[in-house]
Amino acid sequence: MNDVIVIGAGPAGAAYALSLARQGRNVLVIGMPPGHHANTLELLDGRASRALERLELLDAVAATATPCDGVISCWGETVEIRSALTDPDGGGWIVDRIRFDQLMLNAAVAHGAVWLQARVLAVGMTDETWQVDVRQARHEARALVLAIGRNSSLAARAGGVHKIDHRAVALVGWLDPIHELGNRLFVGAGPAGWWFALGTECGVSLGYVTDCDLLPRGTNRTAAAWKSGLEALGYSPSAGVRVIARPATTGRLELSAPHAMVIGDAALAIDPLSGYGLTLALESALQAAEDPQVLPQWLAATATLHAQQERMAYDRLDRDHRSSFFDRGR
Question: What CATH number labels 2-67+97-165+249-315?
Answer without folding.
Answer: 3.50.50.60
